[in-house]
Amino acid sequence: MASLVEWINQNGGNIHEGLNLFSEQPGGDRTVIATKDIEENTILMKIPVSLTISYAEESDLKGKERSCRAEVSEVLRKHFSEHQISNAPFVATTLAVLSEILQVQKYGASSVDASRWGPYLSSLPSETPDCLMNWSDVEREMLVGTALDPSWDDPTVESASKKHEAVAAAMAKGAKKAKSTAAAVAASVKLSGGSIQDFSTDVQRFFSHMVKPVTDANPSLWPVPKDATSLLPYCARVAALVQSRAFHVNAVNWIHDTTTEGQQLFMVPGIDMVNHAAHKRRRNAVMELQGFQASSLKGLEGKENANEAKEEPCFTLRATKFIAAGSEILHSYGELSDSQLLQTYGFVAVQSASSSSLSSPPSQTPKEAENEDENDDDDEEVSYEGVASNPSNYCLIPWSAVQQQTQSLLVALSKAPGSASKTFKLALKPGVLESKIAFLAHHGILQQVAPKRTNFVLAFDSDAVAEANSSTAVGVRRAVGIVSMDPAARGGVAGVAGAAVPLAVAEKKEEEEEAEKKSKSKDEKQKEKDEKSEKKIKRKRSVPIPSELMNAVQVLLLGANEFKELVDEISAADEDEEIEKGLPPPRLDLGASLLEDEEFRELVLACLTQTLLAVSKASPTTYEEDLIEYMKLIDSSSSSLSPQEQKMRRRQAMALHVRLGEKEVLKLAKFSFVRQFAEFFKSLAEEEAEDEDEDEDEEEE
């Protein structure tokens, strides 16, 4: 049987001769390495869609070579239609790959009856990838209080947004969850002699509900191997392979050149072996779609050009920069948080070399390292001092927390002495809250269906993330371990201080530079210092207040009369704009008009601060407790542990990493919110001062 590279090259694809697809990292993980220097824009891999494994509707594949067995496609199409299952790419792709692997098991890889993807299937890891869906229920408890909280658990639902909608209830439970989950997992391993208990895992439920009904009804397509009593172990491996390797692409009709709702999954030979980098500056390749109707796959315009193209559609991996020999090839699976990476691919974006087993280790070319040294003015260019330095991390703020804090604040204010308490009492009247919720849902602040299950997303400022991705991140430099803060290591003048410099020219140049430094005035030095400080501040990442959250809090804190006035005003504005019938109204944007009232500003800030505090308390552990436990795990030796115990420790570390990442966003949000309000107060004061000056000028005139 041909090797993977030979098979790809013989079937319309191409693997660059300067790549090693099967290089192994110290921890045993595979990685793709450049064996020779590769220039920018070089095509590293070209994989025709016909070599991928994917499921699509019959009409979408007419006239095209199928990306899964014809009989399998027909069975799945009929099954999904009869059971009214729509947009189930994970189920379909898992079943398609499972069928091909079982056919190879039955007939042998070299048989004509076996899979035409034999060389690709043979190259896949024989062991089951350690994905989240293989975690036991006890282990999933380690993710309490995160976006992956197991309190909402339905493996048959494909939409990540639906999962996030249900996190609110889980986070509201807060500290009721036990803190001893990790100890319970460790105890279960010890009692079982080193094997992790499988209790009721996602993959078991997935197999029983989604896979077994199809395979039992079609044994010729999914034959049970002679030495097996069930397809469950095979399903577990294949589902983990699909989850950890498949690429998500907008669903497309190949004939009509249109994208449809949902996504398709593609198992892409060769390219699926390339690791992910969370930071853009570490990436040296990009996956693209080329050829016939590639623009529609990407969800872009350009249908005319796509229809005119004759080349078969293909996935390509292109070098985005010079890649030196020995460098790891890295691209992006998407701008994904650690929770999304763990949920989708089974790893987290770890930058620390001591934690390399949780993720792909950092990779740099000599050119990159050299450029970083030249620009290394200080070690605080970007504030990525947290453990989890993934710039795509986020934290969810459930509606339940927002509602609870605003209502508590209104109750307290209604009991305060003074005439204003009457306004807050009216805001607490029955029906007012429900009217506000309906109003917010109608105007796009809350989701239309089940608005009380809305979550607000706290994420790093996009500008700060872009700056971090294009700059030198402290966490990355430390992890790589090649950049020393000692000037001597960077080859600067200070690096040879005290040593004999044989060339008189060099001595003269050094004297001239020293004289130039002394000639600078104090003002110039201070100016440079201020500019450098300002540059550092600008590069500090921040967590801006989501506009939806700001609007929601303001509406909830309005008195009954003020809320009625707002509704009337918005309704009148909608009528003036003559919104076309059937279309949703514009998203609510209150701007800063309400915040010009100082007392109301203070209420909004207090509510936001208390909401963040409440979400922080929803976690069963503090940030400091998680950090201590995390450092213990990654610093301790695992040589004496069994493979299963090492897997358990790895899962504990990844769960802690996800928790730390979300808590770091939350911690930064507390400071960012206060700073943003302070800046807003300052701008208002400046505007008021300008208005006063204008009034004085007018009076003088």
Automatic annotation (TrEMBL):
> Pfam family of this protein, just one?
Rubis-subs-bind
Going by the entry's taxonomy, the superkingdom of the source organism is recorded as Eukaryota
Q: Which GO terms describe its biological process?
A: methylation
- The residue ranges flagged as biased composition, category Basic and acidic residues, are 515-534
Ranges where the record places region Disordered = 354-385, 507-540
SET domain segment(s): 17-334
Q: Which UniProt keywords apply?
A: Methyltransferase, S-adenosyl-L-methionine, Transferase
- Where do transmembrane segments lie in this chain? none
A GO molecular-function term, please? protein-lysine N-methyltransferase activity
Q: Where is the composition biased (Acidic residues)?
A: 370-383
Which InterPro entries does the protein's record reference? Answer: Rubisco_LSMT_subst-bd, Rubisco_LSMT_subst-bd_sf, SET_dom, SET_dom_sf, SETD3_SETD6_MTase
Q: What is the official name of this protein in its record?
A: SET domain-containing protein
Q: What is the lineage of its organism?
A: Eukaryota, Viridiplantae, Chlorophyta, core chlorophytes, Chlorophyceae
